[in-house]
């Protein structure tokens, strides 16, 4: 793995984690209300380690795409390229969730896509900025 990919991944991972905890923490009551009927399929005490690993994987995906194919080297470049990647991944995921789990509601799907798009797009911008700074 190149130094650029490693540093962009680290920066995007930190951004995803910090912004994600703020965003999702702010909307936790809405999530709890929407998922009240989901029973045991919802882990209200999700293991933080798995959340960190998931954020690391999205950060790595963004960094690899930016370095190997998109040639991103600015915050704005990261935002404009990242929003495409993040929206596609999130829409795919939520459609898959709707198809497989009864607890998914339109409100829950919209909120999940919106919050993850904001979070992922900011992280993509951070990754792009780091890529422009690292030689």
Structure description:
By secondary structure, the chain is mainly alpha-helical. The chain has one domain. Helix content is 80%, strand content 0%. It has helices at residues 3-26, 28-34, 48-70, 75-100, 106-133.
Short key terms for the protein model shown above:
5 helices, 135 residues, mainly alpha
Report the uncertain regions. none
What is the radius of gyration computed over CA atoms, rounded to a whole number of angstroms? 16 Å
What is the beta-strand fraction? under 5%
Helix count, DSSP H or I runs of 4 or more residues: 5
- Domain count: 1
Question: What is the approximate shape?
Answer: elongated
Straight-line N-to-C gap: 15 Å
Following the backbone from N to C, one meets helices and strands in this order, namely: HHHHH
Major sheet description? none
Helix content: over 70%
Kindly name the structural category: mainly alpha
The overall strand count is 0
Mean pLDDT: 93
Short summary:
The chain has helices spanning 3-26, 28-34, 48-70, 75-100, 106-133. By secondary structure, it is an all-alpha fold. Helix 1 (3-26) packs across helix 3 (48-70) and helix 4 runs antiparallel to helix 5 (106-133).
């Amino acid at each position: 793995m190149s130094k650029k990919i490693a540093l962009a991944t680290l920066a995007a991972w930190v951004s995803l984690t910090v912004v994600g905890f703020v965003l999702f923490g702010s909307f936790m009551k809405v999530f709890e209300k929407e998922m009240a009927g989901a029973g045991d399929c919802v882990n209200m005490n999700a293991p933080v380690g798995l959340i960190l690993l998931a954020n690391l994987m999205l950060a790595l995906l963004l960094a690899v795409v930016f370095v190997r194919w998109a040639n991103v080297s600015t915050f704005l470049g990261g935002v404009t390229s990242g929003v495409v990647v993040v929206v596609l991944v999130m829409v795919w995921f939520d459609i898959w969730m709707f198809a497989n789990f009864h607890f998914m509601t339109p409100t829950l799907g919209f909120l999940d896509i919106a919050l993850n798009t904001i979070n992922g797009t900011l992280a993509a911008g951070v990754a792009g900025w780091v890529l422009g700074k690292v030689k």
